[in-house]
Amino acid sequence: MSDAFLSMPAALWIGWWAAVGLFVGSFLNVAIHRLPLEGETVSKPRRSRCPSCRTTLSWKENIPLVSWIVQRGRCRTCGWLIPWRYPLVEALNAAAWALVARENAPVHFGRAIFESIALSGLIVATFVDFDCFEIPDEVSIGGIILAPLAVLALPALHDETRLALWMTPDHIAPVARSAALTACLAGMAAGGGILWVIGWVGSRLYGRDAMGLGDVKLLAGGGGLLGPGGVLWALMVASLVASVVGVLNLLRFLVLLRSRARRRGRTVGFGKSLQVARVAGRYVPFGPYLALGIGTVLLYWNEVAGLWRY
Questions:
Q1: What three-state secondary structure class fits 56?
Q2: 84, 74 in Cβ contact below 8 A?
Q3: Are 115 and 123 in contact (CB under 8 A)?
Q4: 3-state DSSP call for residue 74?
Q5: Structural domain harbouring 125
Q6: Rounded Cα gap, residues 41 and 300, in angstroms
Q7: What does the pLDDT read at residue 282?
Q8: pLDDT at 85
């Protein structure tokens, strides 16, 4: 890597990496839209097109954020209202890549590449799961395949993993390649194994699926980059946030049910409303919260562990 690149000012490096992430975010929108569809892939059709009128978009209509603002959030051909998700994904991916750049600086360019790719995959998993209640195999299984390859190419990804450090002479970084791969595989086994057991126990207790296989595969792939300790922290973060959101969702349905009953002049017991709200509010995809936990620990492992211990 050139000295000019390594000496790049931090602000310029972060801005440049965020701009790259912004354009990658445009591709992520394509993946989020097409992966759940039969007969379409991220490369088929080759050119982006309007989901409503199927008109192929020109380069002017494909500039991240700018095109959406200039066109006032509408398709230039049919006037279709472009969902807020499109500029949100682009901006979110740019912000995620900026955080990666801030944490790694130019001297850790390889780590920045792998972490950025991982965060982009998590964004795709999040929005597809919100839309379809499923996580595409291209992300989950792709992560399971790519994590060991990434670790073999850059063992430094596990320089802070205790298992890898324990297997390395003198127990200090840089870790050995074999130690990093062992930590990767152990993290995958821990992440996927724990969720699989939770799902199995839940299905026996409640007589229905308690955990989707997509979640299992997603945490297994994340464990490959986090290691066995990191993947446990990621699951804790995901569970905590999901629990808070679940309670808020239950309260939202409860308020809606009580308000509707009052408008219709019906007398409905609070217990009945609470029972219905519990059923309606429990259908919350877990994948987005797993993605949040994995991404948070990936970037801020030491901070998360220190805060939790505190």
A1: strand
A2: no
A3: no
A4: strand
A5: 3-309
A6: 33
A7: 65
A8: 93
Taken in order 262, 264, 268, 270, is the CA torsion positive or negative? negative
Give the pLDDT score at 17.
Answer: 94
The 10 Å CB-count burial string (b at 16+, else e) for 53-80 is eeeeeeeebeebeebbeeeeeebbeeee
**Structure tokens given for 292:** 């949040």
CA distances from 226 to 30, 144, 239, 251, 269 (A): 28, 12, 17, 34, 48
Query: Are 218 and 143 in contact, with CB atoms under 8 Å apart?
Result: yes
| Domains in the chain, number | 1
Locate all alpha helices (DSSP H) within the chain, ordered by sequence. 3-6, 10-34, 66-70, 85-104, 109-132, 137-153, 162-167, 177-206, 213-263, 270-281, 287-309
Q: What is the pTM of this model?
A: 0.90
The residue written with tokens 């349905």 in the block is 253
| pLDDT the model gives residue 280 | 62
Q: What is the separation of C-alpha 287 from the centre of its chain, rounded to a whole number of angstroms?
A: 8
Q: Are 119 and 97 in contact (CB under 8 A)?
A: yes
Q: pLDDT means per 10 residues in the chain (310 residues)? A: 67 93 95 88 84 87 90 90 94 96 84 95 96 92 96 93 88 89 96 91 76 90 95 93 85 72 67 64 83 95 71
Residues 6+ apart with CB under 8 A from 174: 155, 156, 159, 168
- Cβ-proximal residues to 149 (8 Å cutoff; 6+ apart), any chain: none
Gap between the Cα atoms of 217 and 202, Å rounded: 17
Angle value at C-alpha 158, between 221 and 19, nearest 5 degrees: 70
Predicted local distance difference test score (pLDDT) of residue 169: 84
State both tokens at 119: 């965060």
**pLDDT at position 294, please?**
96
Among 77, 78, 97, 75, which residue's Cα sits nearest to residue 86? Answer: 75
289 contacts 127 by C-beta, under 8 angstroms: no
